[in-house]
Amino acid sequence: MTLSKNPLFTRHEAAAFAVLAFVIFLLLPAALDNFRLNLFGKYLTYAFVAVGLALCWGAGGILSLGQGVFFGLGGYCMAMFLKLEASTPENTSIQSTPGIPDFMDWNQLTELPLWWTPFYSLTFALIAVVIVPVIFAFIIGVAMFRRRVGGVYFAIITQAFAAILTILIIGQQGFTGGVNGITDLRTLKGWDIRTDEAKEVLYYVNGALLFVVLFIAHFVRKSKLGRILIAMRDQEDRVRFSGYDVASFKIFIFCLGAAFAGIGGAMFTLQVGFMSPTLVGIVPSIEMVIFCAVGGRLSIIGAVYGALLVNWAKTSFSESFPELWLFGLGGLFIAVVMLFPNGLAGVWTEKVLPQLTGLWKSRKSQPQKEEALQ
Amino acid sequence: MSLQERYMLKVEGLTVSFDGFKAVDDLSFYVEPNECRVIIGPNGAGKTTVLDLICGRTRATDGSVKFKDHELLKMREDQIVHAGVGRKFQTPSVYEDLTVFENLEISYPSGYSVFGALAFVRSPNVQHRIAEIAETIFLEDLLDEKAAFLSHGQKQWLEIGMLLIQDPELLMLDEPVAGMSVAERKKTAELLNRIIQDRSVIVIEHDMGFVADIATRVNVLHQGKMLSEGSMAHVQADPKVIEVYLGH
């Protein structure tokens, strides 16, 4: 019986993972100089968010326009640790209060706020990178999904959260670094993260973490939970009346997406060397949705390519025509929605793959025909 | 014999009002074990609303719905399902993007929690049960087909199968043969006759021939109120019923 088969990886899926691994770990490092490789490392941090969105939005039909919030929270947790390590009394001896982050000193703070102190610990910071976004997502999720808020309303509310967090960060300058963000990050446990060598190492760490996230996402998609998500997207009531508590499934997948985004944010901070509210707000959140849409919201691997391609296009475009990029991005989004709603992954599986397999099959069948003729 | 044992479902004083309009008004009826109860009535009589109230889709304004020992009005939809109440919707509600097998698998009564669903495995038991149900609902050759490609009648059967796999003690069907071809209708009647054994069933239906065929008792609803209750012959002879259906 064919129906019993539900392997964790089909041949196509295994091949897709292998190709992506080849691109990230061999092709890009070989083809790019250090500066460009670091840029691609930055793009890959957005891929974490896009993979989370492929689960929430693509599979579960929950469109969040506030993923920047979770990316930012993860990034800020990492940045707080790095900032504290950089703010030794020796480094900050010219401040009126040495030993606290510079922006606090500029804002007339004379001692470290209590909630900053746990971030002296790397372990705490690393846990917080995942847990803080998850807690936020959980609170939003319980508040929204238990009340059966969904669809457009949910999207708008998440967007409002992105706006609120940005305003909060900018407003609380003394505690958060305000509009500049947390900058001038130097070392991780004494290891200088600004050198070319460190950036290369971080690129590979980032790639490896992305694969961990991809494997988790793939496992979730392949489990019964993954199919329940798709079922919820199509017929929420039917799922409810088949005995499932729909809200808890939505909360789970939203929290998982937030955890992924948080890890991406932390890797962004490490590779780029700062975190600021410009990565938290509405515009970056919507951009992240576009990465996912371009790559194909139904495909987690597609989401990674989407993040890479759109960001690469953004950088190349902005270098030559800085003022045109936003129009280009808007046009791209319209094109995706109108012409290929399943994104690049859809184009691949619907158009390219059948052609390829067609070629393959005709080539294989030709010799047999000759034999038959003889 | 106490009331508790005698009735599977006790609906008493059930009322729901939407902005003052009483869609269901002080309705009471009792369903016995193994009984097939058919609810009929003109459009807008509140038939579907009654099912919605029992399964928790709509919240009642007043009254009580007792299923065995459970007061359903205080329970969440998924808890009502776990108690043993299954509901089929009027328009076929199947998951179009999933295969017939996957549709049935989601309805298989196990792995209801988030982590239960993550850890769920397709054991031989599950596969066997799904194959068995697929045969009952005439879809054994279409297990790997996406539900989107099924005909209207096949979707209806699939949804019935999704309920059967849960083996509910009380099954509620909303117009199960509506929109079907004559051949499909005949097959469905045969299917329903088989599955209504050993459980209580509430059916909403317009097809009188079909009703006469399956009903133990019939409730006639009119403007949210019970107009008549009894055997098919009884309600057909009831002047009030004739007035509503043929009058004006």
UniProtKB/TrEMBL annotation, chain A:
- Give the matching InterPro entries: ABC_transp_permease, ABC_transptr_urea_perm_UrtC, LivM-like
Query: Which keywords does the record carry?
Result: Cell membrane, Membrane, Transmembrane, Transmembrane helix
Name its cellular compartments: Cell membrane
For membrane topology, the record states: Multi-pass membrane protein
Q: Which residues cross the membrane?
A: 14-32, 44-66, 119-145, 152-171, 201-220, 241-268, 288-312, 324-348
> Which CDD domains does its entry note?
TM_PBP1_LivM_like (cd06581)
Q: What's a GO cellular component annotated to this UniProt protein?
A: plasma membrane
Tell me a Gene Ontology molecular-function term this record carries: branched-chain amino acid transmembrane transporter activity
- Domain of life of the native organism: Bacteria
Q: What is this protein called?
A: Amino acid/amide ABC transporter membrane protein 2 (HAAT family)
- Annotated source species: Yoonia maricola
Automatic annotation (TrEMBL), chain B:
Pfam families (UniProt xref): ABC_tran, BCA_ABC_TP_C
Recorded GO CC terms: plasma membrane
Could you list this entry's UniProt keywords, alphabetically sorted.
Answer: ATP-binding, Nucleotide-binding, Transport
| GO molecular function annotations of the record | ATP binding; ATP hydrolysis activity
Per UniProt, residues of the ABC transporter domain are: 9-248
Matching InterPro entries: AAA+_ATPase (IPR003593), ABC_AA/LPS_Transport (IPR051120), ABC_transporter-like_ATP-bd (IPR003439), ABC_transptr_urea_ATP-bd_UrtD (IPR017781), BCA_ABC_TP_C (IPR032823), P-loop_NTPase (IPR027417)
Judging by the UniProt lineage, the source's domain of life is Bacteria
Protein known as: Urea transport system ATP-binding protein
Species name for this entry?
Yoonia maricola
